[in-house]
Amino acid sequence: MKQHFSEEAIQLFDQLVEWRRGFHVFPELAFEERVTSSRIIQILESTPGVEVTRGFGDTTAVVGKIRGKIDDNAVMLRSAMDALSLQEETDLPFASCIPGVMHGCGHDAHMAALLGAVKLLSNHRDMLIRPIVFVFQPAEEGLGGGARRLVEAGLLDTYKIKHALGFHFWPKYGYGKLLLRHGVMTALSDRFHVSVQGVGGHVAAPHLAVDPWTIVAHLIFAVQGLIGREIDPTESAVISFGRLEAGDAYNVIPGQVDMWGSLRALNPEVRDFLQSRLEDIVPLLARTFRGLGTIKYHRNYPQVVNDKDLTDIVLSIAFEYMDKDNVEILEKPLMSGEDFAFYAQIVPSCFMLFGTGSKYWLHHPKYDVPEELLSLASGWEAYLAFRLSTMGIAEEGQIG
């Protein structure tokens, strides 16, 4: 069967590219993926044997299902749909037509690959034992938490999900390599908003103002000092600022500066400590320079934890489908956040990466997914779900 899936996926290449480019040229932000979901619905409804649910959980989510011989213990494949608030700089002929919005995380390619897997599995639907559910999920990026919304709306119970699978194209790692690990796969991912208030004034008379820029400058160095001097050097943590708002004129000291940032950690105790220190430092440091500082801290995404038994099975299937040299076990978790974690908290799950060897990192305005990998990813997703669906009782017991 692996040969069938591989060859059929290669035959789908032109269609995969067309789908991917269609998604890429018209990106949509979290919970606004209306055109995207309409295109997905059209493709799913034209595929034999696929039952389609639109708007699950009162969102833009689209859920497809291919029934098996039993209507229980479903295998779930998930792709995110949303894009980023980012101005594209790829110069691709199919670059984003929406100013300031870009598929800079590869979700356009993820959707195309999963749609290809739907087509492949439709061809072999008469052989399926367990149903396969395809989740096109909104709002994975940043503040969205689309997975949490779907879980709260009862997705896993409604579709009787027993195992959840997710994958992500990933730059820097070897081209075409499948990468995964047992246990913790991603970091805890939080966000926070810092507001520093001073007293505005003329830039030529700073002594008559309270300059919030000075406070912010000291604050940024103090925060990085937490990482370098207040946690065990063997622990991993990151605090980064990604957004800043202040002022309207070059010659006016603003009265307020607002910053938004993210904290990532692998150890929950380290996260607790750093959150506490941030909440101490912001108001105290601002007061030192005669200002007022506040912080609102939000715990965003938990860690993706790959189920050990399921990951063992996924690895064995990967060795069947591709050369063992193209399968790699990661030594360390990623510092990235991923809301697939909300599924993994409830059902045995496995989250995987496909290396692209790309020069630019995720969320870079020049990030692009090599389209030559679409057939490989699509065939792999389909074959993996097929094998999990058609496993015998003895095999299934290993990952029950």
From TrEMBL:
Peptidase M20 dimerisation domain segment(s): 191-282
Residues that, per the record, bind Mn(2+): C105, H107, E141, H168, H363
The entry's keywords: Hydrolase, Manganese, Metal-binding
SUPFAM superfamilies, A to Z: Bacterial exopeptidase dimerisation domain, Zn-dependent exopeptidases
GO biological process: diaminopimelate biosynthetic process
Required cofactor names: Mn(2+)
GO terms for MF: metal ion binding; N-acetyldiaminopimelate deacetylase activity
Keyword DNA repair among UniProt keywords: no
Textual note on the cofactor: The Mn(2+) ion enhances activity.
InterPro entries: Amidohydrolase, Bact_exopeptidase_dim_dom, Peptidase_M20, Peptidase_M20_dimer
Gene3D superfamilies: 3.30.70.360, Zn peptidases
Protein name from the UniProt record: Amidohydrolase
Key word Hydrolase present: yes
